[in-house]
Design brief:
Layout: E1 10-25, H1 26-35, E2 47-59, E3 62-73, E4 77-80, E5 83-86, H2 88-110, H3 113-120, E6 125-136, E7 165-178, E8 182-195, E9 201-213, H4 230-235, E10 254-258, H5 266-278, E11 284-287, E12 293-294
Parallel strand pairs: 1-3, 1-9, 3-11, 4-12, 6-7
Antiparallel strand pairs: 2-3, 2-6, 4-5, 7-8, 8-9, 9-10
Length: 305
Amino acid sequence: MGFRNNTKKIIDLINLNNFAILLHDAKTIRTFQEKSGMSGQYRVEYQHHYINAIGRIEAGDQMMDIAIPLVMYNYPQEVAGASVEFSLQDVSNMNNKAMKLAEEKFNELSDTEIMKKLLEMGVVTWRIEGLNSIHAHPSGVNRFSGTDLRADINHPGINFPCNIGENAANFASIIQHRAGSHAEIIHTEYRVFNATEESDKVYQKGRCLTLVRGYNPPPPEPIPEIEDGPIDKIFGTSRPKPKPKPVEMSRESYILKDQLTAQEGDDIAKDIMELWEKSDFQIDRSFIKRENVLLTRKRFNKNKT
């Protein structure tokens, strides 16, 4: 999948026969935030894309996708309080560059206990699909904006990134800086994409569970004892003591639902979350680069989105 502007139009439909479970990770989102230079209070929108392993079950006219992120990446972007500007070609190029590492990570995932359990559950058909996205919104903005959902074929919104594909699973999420500092996923939408070079781009929005695995940070290193020196003892002074590092809070696992009621999906979510919490598989974040997030508007003068 890549970016070309030679198809007819973008069509966004609803198909509740399509169901997805996205497994994500609170520590990964924290790392993305820090490596983007966005620690602390929310200042500007910023984003990344990522590549998933997709396991699919089909039964009758319904299908379920289980998505496990393999590699996340960012690209040059100009960011402001209510917008992100970036080149579609940069996204496509980075997606292609990260795909080799994603294949290596998929091989690593294949040897994990969670994969073995999913295979036992009947999730036996797997593929690798890129161009999934996460971007930051200010507190209180819990849905995608009109710009995010823009269906202009020449300048599509973040939710419509694909060029060609057959029943490709695509995910778009929003993060917010919660309690003023740490970022969390607060909303995800799942679409199944179909298009050829000559056809319209057809997206079908389905039902989605997002399972975010929490974490417990390691205990802070103890502050070494510093004895007063002989001159301090004479003058009754003390050597400056190092300040303790702020205690990092643990993050609880949580579940988000889109196109589902509060009760729907709880049983399968519980079972898969238990597998995910026990798994030591880590999403690769090496393609997230601080220098890609530009706080000025000097780079782009065309092909904006």
